[in-house]
Amino acid sequence: MSTPSLPIPWPENAEIKVYSGGCHCKKVRYEFEHPDIYTMPVINCNCSICEDRGYLNVFTHDNKFKFTAGADEVTTYKFGSNNVHHRFCRVCGTTIGPVVPVKGMVVVNTRTIDDIDLKLLQLRPVDNRTSRGPPSA
Length: 137
Ligand SMILES: [Zn+2]
Description:
It is built from one helix and ten strands, in the order E-E-E-H-E-E-E-E-E-E-E. With 137 residues, it is mainly beta. Strand 8 (95-100) and strand 9 form a beta hairpin.
């Protein structure tokens, strides 16, 4: 198992768990693979989109993420280079996290994981505010 392409590479020989989660109205449901969420850094970025959407992010490969319900209720917001597709439920607006197709990467907003205890997350502050501005009109 090699994950060097992820912003937070997974530890060698980490036990991989399957997490489930979804949006508030429960139309959109997902599952993804990731090492124990509470043992890994969770990115708390202050760039405009992360802050506005309340992202607390972990990363997985797109072949380790799947929708188990409501994939057709998911819509996306894109801006700038359009490389990052910010996905949210079109019914309730819950932002589950972006997909980055050019990197084969899915970002999961840990807030939407079932039964997540935010107090136990190892938040890693990232200062991207200066390098990414708001979308140009
Ligand atoms: Zn929803």
